[in-house]
Design brief:
- This protein has 13 helices and ten strands.
- It is α+β, with helices and mostly antiparallel strands.
- It has three domains: 2-113, Acyl-CoA dehydrogenase/oxidase, N-terminal domain (Butyryl-Coa Dehydrogenase, subunit A, domain 1); 121-231, Beta Barrel (Butyryl-CoA Dehydrogenase, subunit A, domain 2); 235-379, Butyryl-CoA Dehydrogenase, subunit A, domain 3.
- Helix 4 (66-78) packs parallel to helix 9 and helix 11 (315-340) runs antiparallel to helix 12 (351-359).
Length: 386
């Protein structure tokens, strides 16, 4: 990765990996086994300023670019850690930075930068709507200087560990005869005031990512917490999702390079029948193939990041980067598991934990089938398939 980075970014990479070295495999294995939130790790990232790297310096942040943030997230996963426990504070930031007003930035960003507030919860997905975001049913009705929110969300990760939540709601009813993306709005929910009034239930999954189902019953949110203009929240979310795709791609790449490094090292030192198993093409070639595809996906990631940093909306590049990186990651995970053989399924070696983590990106936060549909329809101009 370092060959594409500036000197400053190489220093970021080294500093993050040095921090991650304080949290070895045994730490993550314990977190996974007990299904805990890695509070100490997230606090260490916060104290070091890595979770505020995208906040402009005028608000107390690092003033970094999205490429800088990519370096941070890739380094975490490349070290064997798991950035998913904290990454939302980076990709939710894009919506506020690009579309929030100055009062909102002054009110929230300095406290986030100082580590006094965590901005980790993102409420978009609903059980019935799934990936069809235009069909969400959570409503926000204006009542004086507040919105009254009713409805619910699903797969809202890190809810108990966040002070602020970015919430997508309907401020006008869904109408199939009009532009269905209209009428959606973004609200900042201050959970310090309202957490106890939001019913939340944990969703057990194969990973300890702490997702929750939320229920809103006449939740009051000040109108001053509306991001941008009422009814235009869908475009704000899409803008933020481009950043999300780019940043998450960096995590997937970090995991993929972790797998290829582990597999290469083990294939070089593990001897069976009097020779290193990496001397066998059936072991060596899948690792090499995965590595080549990871590097190719990385280039698409850097292209998307550059376009985003220049104020553009790189929807194709961000989606393609996500698609290619998850496919390459899954190849790397399987190549590594095959290389380790029986040892790969044991907890001791850590492969099985990362293997489980490698499967989810193929379907979340967006299914690769939806990514392909987007490219086919919006980039190549083919008929809409859904």
């Amino acid at each position: 990765m370092s060959s594409y980075l500036t000197d400053d970014q190489q220093q970021i990479q080294s500093a993050v990996m040095e921090l991650c070295a304080r949290f070895p495999d045994s730490y993550w294995q314990q977190i996974d086994k007990e299904r805990l939130y890695p509070d100490k790790f997230v606090q260490a990232l916060t104290d070091a300023g890595w979770l505020s790297i995208l906040i402009p310096e005028e608000y107390g942040g690092g003033g970094g670019t999205i490429t800088d943030a990519c370096v941070v997230l890739e380094a975490i996963n490349r070290s064997g850690g798991n950035a998913v426990t904290a990454h939302a504070q980076l990709y939710t930031m894009g919506t506020v930075l690009r579309h929030g007003n100055e009062e909102q930035k002054q009110r929230f960003l300095p406290a986030i930068a100082a580590g006094d507030l965590r901005f980790q919860a993102f409420g978009v997905t609903e059980a019935d709507a799934g990936t069809d975001t235009t069909r969400i049913r959570t409503t926000a009705v204006r009542d004086g200087d507040h919105y009254i929110v009713n409805g619910g969300k699903i797969f809202t990760s890190r809810f108990p560990h966040s002070d602020i939540m970015l919430l997508l709601v309907r401020t006008t009813p869904y109408d199939p005869n009009t532009r269905t993306t209209q009428g959606l709005s973004c609200l900042l929910v201050d959970l310090r005031d309202s957490r106890d009034s939001i019913e939340h239930r944990p969703i057990p999954t194969m990973l300890s990512h702490d997702p929750y189902q939320l229920f809103f019953d006449d939740l009051r949110v000040p109108v001053e917490n509306l991001i941008g203009e009422e009814g235009k929240g869908f475009s704000y979310i899409l803008s933020g999702m481009n950043a999300e795709r780019i940043l998450l791609t960096s995590e997937f790449l970090g995991d993929g390079f972790w797998f290829t490094e582990k597999a290469s090292q083990y294939a070089t030192t593990r001897e069976v029948f009097g020779r290193p198993i990496g001397q066998n093409q059936a072991v060596q070639f899948p690792i090499a193939q995965a590595y080549a595809e990871l590097e190719a996906a990385s280039l698409m990631r850097w292209k998307a990041a550059e376009l985003y940093a220049n104020g553009q909306s790189p929807a194709f590049e961000a989606n393609a980067a996500k698609l290619l990186s998850t496919q390459a990651l899954w190849k790397a995970a399987n190549a590594c598991m095959d290389t380790y053989g029986g040892y790969g399924v044991t907890v001791e070696y850590g492969i099985e934990r990362k293997f489980r983590e490698a499967r989810t990106p193929l379907v979340a936060p967006v299914s690769n089938n939806l990514v392909l549909a987007y490219i086919g329809q919006n980039t190549l101009g083919m008929p809409k398939s859904y």
